[in-house]
Amino acid sequence: MAYNNLKINRxxxxxxxxxxxxxxxxxxxxxxxxxxxxxxGKLDGDESVSTIIITGEGKAFVAGADIAELKGxxxxxxxxxxxxxxxxxxxxxxLDKPVIAAVNGFCLGGGCELAMACxxxxxxxxxxxxxxxxxxxxxxxxxxxxxLPRLVGEGRAKELLMTGDIIDAQAARQIGLANKVTAxxxxxxxxxxxxxxxxxxxxxxxxxxKSVVHKGxxxxxxxxxxxxxxxxxxxxxxxxxxxxxxxxxxKRKPKWER
Length: 258
Fold this sequence. Notes:
With about 260 residues, the protein is α/β, with parallel strands linked by helices. It contains 11 helices and 10 strands. The strands form 2 sheets. A 6-stranded mixed beta sheet has the order 1-2-3-5-7-10, sandwiched between helices. The chain has a 4-stranded mixed beta sheet with strand order 4-6-8-9. A hairpin with a 2-residue loop joins strand 1 and strand 2. Helix 1 packs parallel to helix 3 (about 75-95), helix 5 packs across helix 6 and helix 9 (about 205-215) runs antiparallel to helix 10.
């Protein structure tokens, strides 16, 4: 599949997906969702890729959904568009590989929802976060009302969702929406450093941590603990836990089989 709205680059063991619609501040339209879904599926099956990074071209990460496409929709078309975006973001969460959002600028509406679907968010000092959909007379459509409270708490989420306020990167870090904030020129170096650190760890363990944390947030503590128990056993069944422990005792770097 040829991509009109994405650029895919490789750097070390990371794959970088750049949403490339700078003239529209990388707004998410149906074509971009289809391309993103295709790219994610291919990269998740590529054993040479340990981490996926999502960023935006130009001065925006993603400034929102494409209002030019949305404005002519009826209720049924709007629900279908919402469902398409939700499915792609659920795909990000279900990937075996960790996904890092490199938030380089405007991260609003659908862009904030995309970042929240990623496992980790590293932001430039120039980044701006928000869910301003109420300004347009609508709610978020890509599960922003669900992920934001899980990240920042119910009270803060309701404030952002109901006021449509836009916050800077430092405020986003303070409430847990961003993991780390860097100078703009240092953003990709910081993201690549984090990706390299993750790539050095046991790949099965990293994948299982992602899965158990995500699924555990949807269930009670006892059910989540049971999932962790299974994951712990799987690390030994994969052979990676014995290798990691042997390497520790022998004071050498582990040799992971992917």
